[in-house]
Fold:
Amino acid sequence: MSKITKAGGDDTGFDKPLYVPIKRRSFFMYAGATAGATALLLSGCDDDEVFPDPAAPTPPVTPTPGATTVSVGSGDVGVLNYAYALEQLEAAFYTQLRTGSYYTGLNASSAERQILDDLYYHEVIHREFFKAAITGAAPTAIIKDLTPNFSAINFNDRASVLGAAKAFEDLGVSAYNGAGRFISTTGNGPLYLLLAGKIVSVEARHAAIIRDLLQEGNFVGTDVINSSGLEISKTPTEVVAAANTFLAEGSKLNVSGLV
Amino acid sequence: MNIFQIISEIEKVDPEVYDRLDSRRSIFKHMSGMGKTLAAAAVPMAFGAVLNKAYAQTSMAPGVNDVLNFALKLEYLEAAFYNQGLGAMGATATAVQTALRAGFSATNLAALEKIRNDETAHVAFLRTALGTNAIDAPAANTFDFTGGKGGTPGPFATVFTAPATFLAVAQALEDTGVRAYKGGAPYLASNKDVLTAALNIHSVEARHASRIRTMRRAGAMNNAASQTAAAGTDRSASPKSWVSGNDGGGPAPAQTAPVYAMGAAPAYTPAVITFPGEENVTQGGVNLQTALSSLNFPAAAFSEAFDEALPVPVVSDIARTFVITGSTFI
Structure:
């Protein structure tokens, strides 16, 4: 039995993210250009009863006494920080995955190697995109680099790695779907909503193939969609309850500002 | 001539006629003013002009019901495709359907049936959501999935007899659906519950697209499709589970290139929203491939990491590939 690779974020490079300065001056250069956009939106659907009100929000996770949490903030920046936090977590996972013997033992031309390489690229790009976006839009509001805690994941074991990947990807999809409602309809809101849409469908494509790798044909299942064929979205509170189990003390998220 | 009788007749075809006329232009107030000054014989002509304005869809941003009904049309299209090819849920398959089904491995056939059932459920959901505003299901002969528009079988003549062709059309339909929901989302944002529901369909379409692509690169009879890597560099023939660049125009470039290409933005589009092709690497004004060049990632990764949206008129054009000549359904 090969030795267990140390699990934890300290030596993975996540604490020293692949920092790349990004030209930010052109970022969101359209600020304010859609001030009148909502005027174009017509009245809502008459049949609200098929869209039941979301469950009453559960109280925010009570932080461990004495431990600080990372507040994503509120408004559009809060949603961007929330997405950035989840992308940090995913990117850190796929980065650390590359050090485990499951990944390093894969044939270079195998489907699993190709898929996990692509997911690593995509999630790092997502993380760096949000870092640039938030720095450009609200430089004082961006959350810090989070420290993950992947001690529950055995990076030498296929089932453990792919099971975690499935959890992260499904969680990401349900999180983006549940966060759309918190994005404003004015200013850059429509752009943020579109950008979230551009990313969430890629996350859903990821989730599908990871689930297929674990169980052929399980790309969508009753654990992620309801009887109407709709993905089961999650509130930020529900999402961070899961995400925080993979974050170290001091990096656990607080989403009480997203209402 | 009874104008309200005319409107009533139109309503049978277009349940939203009152919304079109009333909410957009306060038209009835306008009409009554005209009636005072125009001879009765002239009213129908003026009314015709009013209708033309009400139906000039490109001039006004779509409302919530417009977007939902457009989504419903696409779901009708998708559900009809799987039902015609595989047989409807619970129905006895025809000889042709039985032969097509035999061309798929057990896991692939089960996956296709799951997708068929999801699309059928999406139709039911959207019909319930729209209530009396929901457009009716189209006549059975509205669609021609060979692309022949009801005449001589078109470029996908073997769509329901050759599994590879079936999967090619399925990929085009699912990838189109993903882009369409993305493009519609900003117009649903005024109703948060409707927006969330649409997003929850959008991601399921993306899961479907991923699986169809996985099956295409592995082959219809492969029973462990996810274990086949994308081969070579031809993403038209051997797609990844996500769109890479523009996938060489997709499964049948002569017909499917628009599914992966840029779309012209209708005039009503907010300035912050554009519709680049799937090969796009610039997000929020930053060329990510350039800005993140020090990562030394493959160039394709920067396009793969983001799917792109399409606006309603472009999706309509794509969907009409499978609608018979003379139909105004889409």
Notes: DSSP finds six helices and two strands in chain A.
